[in-house]
Amino acid sequence: MCNIEKLTTESTNEATRNIDRLESLEIVTLINNEDKKVAEAIEKVLPQIAEAVESIVERFKKGGRIIYCGAGSSGRMGTLDAVELTPTYSVSPARAFGLLAGGDEAMYTAVEGAEDSEELAVEDLKRVKLTADDCVIGIAASGRTPYTKAALEFGKQTGAFTISVTCNQDSAMAKIADISIAPVVGPEVINGSTRMKAGTAQKMVVNMLSTGAMIRLGKVYRNYMVHVQPTNEKLIKRAVKMIVDLTGAKEELALKVLYEADKDVAAAIVMIECGCRKDQAREALLESGGQVRKAIAAVKNGVSSDDKSLE
User: Fold this and answer.
1) Hey, how many other C-beta atoms are within 10 angstroms of the C-beta on 46?
2) φ, ψ for residue 289 (rounded to 5)?
């Protein structure tokens, strides 16, 4: 078993040894100074993150899933990232989800002993019927958490693509995974409190992994999340603004076409840009894998619509 005292994330931060004697402004200044180191650590592992993005895209196109695995704060980070992909990019919850040591209950309260159970990780992955087309992303600041380590091991045995996200070099997880992403952020402001710099680093990494993959999968047009699900008033307003910005249409027309497209933002954009019907827009999007740019080109180059309803 790894001696945690030797881990960078568990070492003592000399700059904050007397933090308990400081005033509030001095405390938050110290925390901020340490947080500045996170982006620099991420910068050093950008090639590995980019490589992981390409692997996720490759598997996802084959029908594979993005499965985040972790315990405690790390597991919650992965689960949160997965959950956000549905409203933001219309990714089915069945195709991107988190497995948290201890189950759903562990999202809110600590489940004693769950992170130490290798058997639990295997059971969880068997329950979701892990396949060789899937991607398993193991997240653990230490890189040694038994639950997460076992998830990567079982992923490798199954033929799934495995990615480890840790904050220590040469960790046990790094040696298992197909790709190791290990931004070394140094000792925490509060000794061993890895929900701080390590947690921030993990959040930044999973943001890049999922966002990068969604962009490469065509879920983004220019820099807009055109596959967003406008399920409330705020998101409908955002969708209308998006359509106006991208097409130059008047707000009234954008709102009208959005509802004609059953609140499918991507379809509404294609309809306005090409002057086509909803069924044509949807067919073009289906054939292009949801990529708005390709769908617009396909309709403009392939079908001359005589539909004047949008003028």
Assistant:
1) 12
2) 70, 25
Asked whether 224 and 242 are in contact (CB, 8 A), the reply is yes
CA-CA distance, 9 to 60, in Å (whole number)? 33
What digits encode the pLDDT tens for the residues 33-85? 999 999 999 999 999 999 999 999 999 999 999 999 999 999 999 999 999 99
The H or E element spanning position 284 is helix 278-287
Nearest alpha carbon to residue 309 among 257, 250, 261, 255: 257
Which residues belong to the active site?
84, 115
In whole angstroms, what is the distance from residue 239 CA to residue 287 CA? 23
The pTM of this model reads: 0.90
- What's the rounded Cα separation, in Å, for the pair 79 and 162? 17
Distances (CA, A) of 62 to 40, 158, 222, 225, 262: 34, 16, 25, 22, 28
Residue 215 structure tokens: 């962009």
Q: Which amino acid is at 42?
A: I
Answer whether 280's CB lies under 8 Å from 288's CB: no
Coil, helix or strand at residue 174: helix
**Residue 71 CB partners (closer than 8 Å, separation 6+):** 100, 101, 102, 106, 114, 115, 140, 145, 147, 148
Cβ 101 vs Cβ 111: under 8 Å: yes
Round to whole Å and give the CA distance between 85 and 130.
20
What CA–CA distance (Å, rounded) separates 225 from 167? 30
Q: How confident is the model at residue 4 (pLDDT cuts 50, 70, 90)?
A: low
- Strands of the sheet containing 96-100, edge to edge, are 96-100, 66-70, 135-139, 161-165, 179-181
CA distance linking residue 148 with residue 78, whole number of Å? 12
Our CA angle for 188, 185, 33, nearest 5°, is: 65
